[in-house]
Write a structure and sequence with these properties.
Layout: H1 3-7, E1 14-16, E2 23-25, E3 36-39, E4 42-45, H2 46-55, E5 63-66, E6 79-82, H3 84-93, H4 101-105, H5 112-123, H6 129-136, H7 140-147, H8 169-172
Helix pairs in contact: 6-7
The structure holds zinc ion.
Zinc ion binds near residues 22, 70 and 73.
């Protein structure tokens, strides 16, 4: 794709998550949850590209880390530079070097349709996370991860109406790099 298409990809390539301020890549992810894009002759992680657009080139050997701990997030305000050592430390502190929590919580039982259903029902506003947890037989942390796109971030649907709840105008208007 072209750089222009990436910059104007709100709603097509990435979407805002209500409340958290995250902008999550919705076009398929690696097993670590990062989105990869081909721009010109380069293949690059979506979050690294986003960082570059906002801040200029990434120095050699440096990693782009997430303050928000959402690997699919490309919001430049949630990204910062670190060394490989920082990256490993960060991943360990945040538990990303452990098996995904969903499996511990039994969320492997949850289907894609149910994930979308949980998000839709949660953002419709009339059901609590713990009610959903009880109903789907998963722990509340898993419900929280689902609605905050920490899990199944690549699985996207029906969130457009929730965009209006986000207080950050620049998000809803797609002016992310200006
Ligand atoms: Zn984020």
């Amino acid at each position: 794709m072209t750089l222009e298409r990436f910059k104007n990809g709100m709603g097509e390539l990435y979407e805002p998550v209500p409340f958290s301020g995250c902008i999550v890549w919705i076009r398929g992810c690696s097993s670590w949850g990062y989105g990869d894009v081909n721009v010109g002759a380069r293949r690059i992680s979506a979050h690294r590209l986003s960082f570059e657009i906002a801040n200029g080139p990434i120095p050699d050997g440096m990693c782009v880390l997430h303050r928000c701990d959402v690997p699919a997030c490309i919001n430049p305000r949630h990204l910062f530079l670190g060394t490989k050592g920082d990256n490993n430390r960060d991943a360990t502190e945040k538990g990303r070097n452990k098996p995904p929590r969903g499996e511990i919580c039994g969320a492997a039982k949850i289907t894609r349709v149910e994930v979308l259903e949980i998000r839709r029902r949660y953002f419709s506003g009339d059901v609590l996370q713990r009610q959903l947890a009880a109903e789907y037989g998963i722990c509340q942390q898993t419900v929280s991860d689902i609605v905050n796109h920490k899990k199944w971030a690549w699985l996207y649907g029906e969130l457009k109406e929730a965009r209006d709840h986000d207080g950050d105008e620049s998000v809803s208007k797609g002016r992310y790099y200006e």
